[in-house]
């Protein structure tokens, strides 16, 4: 399947799944191969603050992996304004990447996603699961708590019957901390050069 020549499929794998906030004509569950979803990107003014960023999703290259999310079709008439909005929303270390989308009915189409590559200015990178969970449990920003971001993403993945062990294990670990009312570690400093402001979260 492919859309009209003057439109584009945009793939969401984080907050675009549960809050697209773009003028799409159609949305479909889709898969991209060669990527895996990880909470390795910093959020400096939505789910964290400049000196203590939260953790949000990005995609990490992995030839053996795939990631399911939601693809949105944007008509060409609305495309320019959509790019402007998304470029601003995703400017904290994210860039556009062309990908091939596979839909559940067996059809496919070209698309675009935003990815925060390894080493970008807001990159936090991997960490042991308990450390990431404690980080998320203790982070908040103007858009709300980091826990809320994780819960919303995990909830939508479950609703859409998308399996993501990384997200679900991280959510369980965070919920265990919340139930235990465990003491949280000090806020992690922002990486050098990071923290440019956003008005919409990635």
Produce a short descriptive summary.
Helix content is 28%, strand content 32%. The chain has 202 residues and is of the alpha+beta class.
Helix content: 25-40%
Percentage of β-strand residues: 25-35%
Largest sheet: 5 strands, mixed, barrel
The CATH homologous superfamily name equals Gamma-glutamyl cyclotransferase-like
Strand order of the largest sheet: 1-3-2-4-5
Write down the overall geometry: globular
Relevant terms:
Hypothetical upf0131 protein ytfp; alpha+beta; five-stranded mixed beta barrel; 202 residues; single chain; disordered C terminus; two-stranded antiparallel sheet; 5 helices
Structure commentary:
This protein has 202 residues and is α+β, with helices and mostly antiparallel strands. It has a single domain, classed as Gamma-glutamyl cyclotransferase-like (Hypothetical upf0131 protein ytfp), CATH 3.10.490. It is built from five helices and seven strands. It has a five-stranded mixed β-barrel. A two-stranded antiparallel ribbon has the order 6-7. A hairpin with a 4-residue loop joins strand 4 and strand 5. The C terminus is likely disordered.
